[in-house]
Specification:
By secondary structure, this protein is an alpha/beta fold. The chain has 24 helices and 10 strands. A hairpin with a 2-residue loop joins strand 4 and strand 5. Helix 2 packs across helix 13 and helix 4 packs across helix 7.
């Protein structure tokens, strides 16, 4: 087969790429080997352990580590904000940050000298206070930070842009405040980018020469770093310069190797075993339907049984919409959202207790509605009220942050936090709301057990199958008991058998809750929903109780709704005369 090779691995990468790759390796490696071949081993120890060499190496290490730490402290916030926020002059700021990368080092040194030097306006002010910078060790650090900071900003900005804000939004929906999201989700997810930037900053600082010499000078034990020492020694003893160069190379390589061998370093190879496991689906025991004797986990229905179902696996009590009928007035849920740019003007009212199914063609505005409800997208106007509780009201200027709404959105992608175990994922929302750790873990374990994935509690998200991940995400959403649960095709990732059983469990768990469900599956509507809302071209064109849906009253959406009703073979969703 073209594009493959024999053995355990397969690849679609063209083989000819090895030619320029090897040429690049040779180009970088040959000069180093050429220098090493000129080393006089007999005098190497004397050169390396000389007093001047020791002072220079010590100064280089101390200043390089210091500048790397400073670059992380100021470069990380800068890179993160550049990737996540838009502000006036952003392109100019980014250009100025990257400028030291293309400036000759001596120009960078001159810029620092004529800004912070003794005769410069800012420098003279510091001199008068006894805080002069030029020709001091602090000047060495400043020069190193000036030339290395862009590496930190670029690494963090790239890492942030590639990971996006999905995990942070998920954490906020679970009730985590911004500081908790930042320290428990953002920083762990970006630690690889931070470490890469820190290593690059250290390496760049360790080799800095021009800016240091121009701004800090070359004072032994004060500003003479190892690159400056090598330059000075080269004039009188080239062999000694080569020996010192070897020392610098060895130390730099040792630091980089140590950094990339740490547990938090970027992985150079994908976790093949986990990838193969997920691509081939769950094992037979894991794939067994929830409540099945072969399933890894206890039966899930309340009272030890399984909800009454029809032949299609639908929960009859939940699907008919008849259970719990009462003549007493019930609280209502009213939602409205208007976004002119997207042509959305959605407005509907349904019973607050129960599940409302939102159906419609792709692009009708269903996902945009969910984004407005969670607070991820600000509408031009709109409001959400659940009973007597006003979640937001844009016309009244009431727009609370995501974490304060009590709305959890279960997206099609499970978005399990990759750095946390399954049990810690599920109890994250409880911990964010102040539940003690032990109690949160107990509640999380109970919910995992009910969904048949309790045996995965101590695994990492990468070690579970796609179907298990979907159920774990569902457990994480349900365990916090949100005011409103938003489900975006929650069963789409499951196999048919698992989907039927999980649908039964979900029907039980949604009983008495307020939920909205986006789906294209009529079985989901029949088993889970009490009310159906049809969205067409950004507006609600039909809303009715499940079992009484009438396509003739759906306006422009009548054809879509008629087709939807025809797929409901048992006539549970739509009016019997139209099924």
């Amino acid at each position: 087969m073209p594009g493959t090779r024999t053995g355990r691995e397969q690849t679609t990468i063209p083989g000819w790429l090895w030619v320029p790759a090897i040429a690049g390796i040779v180009f970088l490696l040959v000069p180093v080997l050429g220098m090493l071949s000129r080393i006089d081993v007999a005098d190497l120890g004397e050169v390396i352990f000389a007093e001047e060499s020791r002072l220079a190496m010590q100064l280089s290490l101390v200043t390089s580590v210091t500048s790397a730490v400073i670059s992380v402290l100021i470069g990380f916030p800068l890179g993160y904000l550049l990737a996540t926020r838009t502000f006036p002059g952003q392109r100019i700021v980014r250009t100025l940050i990257l400028l030291p990368l293309v400036l000759p080092p001596v120009v960078s040194g001159l810029a620092l000298l004529y800004t912070w030097g003794r005769s410069a306006a800012l420098g003279s002010g510091l001199e008068s206070m006894g805080l002069g910078l030029a020709y001091t060790t602090s000047a060495v650090v400043m020069a190193q930070v000036f030339v290395s900071l862009p590496f930190m900003v670029m690494s963090v900005e790239t890492a942030t842009a590639s990971s996006g804000q999905r995990f942070e939004l998920t954490a906020a929906e679970l009730g985590a405040r911004p500081n908790r999201v930042f320290f428990t989700i953002t920083l762990p997810l970006l630690r690889q980018g931070i470490m890469t930037g820190a290593v690059l900053c250290f390496a760049r600082s360790l080799g800095e020469f021009g800016a240091t010499l121009t701004f800090a000078g070359s004072l032994s034990g004060v500003t003479r770093t190892m690159p400056l020492q090598i330059y000075l020694v080269r004039e009188s003893d080239p062999q000694a310069a080569i020996g010192l160069s070897l020392l610098l190379i060895v130390i730099a390589v040792a630091i980089i190797v140590t950094a990339y061998r740490s547990p938090h370093a970027p992985r150079l190879r994908p976790p093949r075993a986990h990838a193969d496991r997920r691509s081939h689906g769950p094992t037979p025991a894991e794939a067994a339907p929830v409540g099945h004797p072969d399933a890894a986990g206890p039966p899930v229905a309340a009272g030890g049984g399984v909800p009454d179902t029809d032949a299609a696996g639908r929960s009859v009590a939940a699907g008919t919409g008849q259970a719990g009928d009462s003549s007493a007035p019930t609280p209502s849920l009213s939602a409205a959202a208007r976004i002119v740019e997207r042509g959305i003007a959605i407005d509907f009212t349904t019973p607050a207790e129960g599940t409302t199914a939102i159906i419609g063609r792709n692009g009708a505005g269903k996902s945009s509605l969910f984004q407005v409800l969670t607070g991820a997208l600000r509408a031009d106007s709109g409001a959400l009220r659940i009973g007597t509780d006003t979640i937001f009201d844009l016309d009244a200027g009431h727009w609370p942050p995501v974490h304060a709404r009590g709305i959890v959105h279960l997206a099609q992608n499970p978005l399990l936090f990759p750095h946390l175990s399954v049990i810690d994922n599920v109890c994250f929302g409880l911990r964010a709301r102040g539940t003690p750790t032990a109690q949160a873990r107990r509640q999380a374990q109970v919910m995992l057990d009910r969904l048949g994935v309790g045996h995965c509690a101590n695994r990492r998200p990468e070690a579970v199958s796609g179907g298990q991940a979907a159920r774990i995400a569902l457990a994480r959403a349900l365990v916090v008991d949100p005011k409103l649960l938003l489900l975006d095709e929650p069963l789409a990732a499951l196999d048919v058998d698992v989907r039927i059983e999980t649908r039964q469990v979900l029907a039980e768990l949604l009983a008495g809750r307020t939920a909205m469900l986006i789906t294209h599956d009529v079985d989901d509507v029949a088993a889970l929903a009490q009310t159906l809302v049809l969205v067409e071209d950004g507006a609600v064109v039909h809303s009715a109780r499940v079992g009484a849906v009438d396509p003739d009253h759906a306006g422009t959406g009548r054809e879509f709704l008629r087709s939807f009703c025809m797929s409901d073979g048992d006539g549970i969703v739509c009016n019997q005369s139209h099924s």
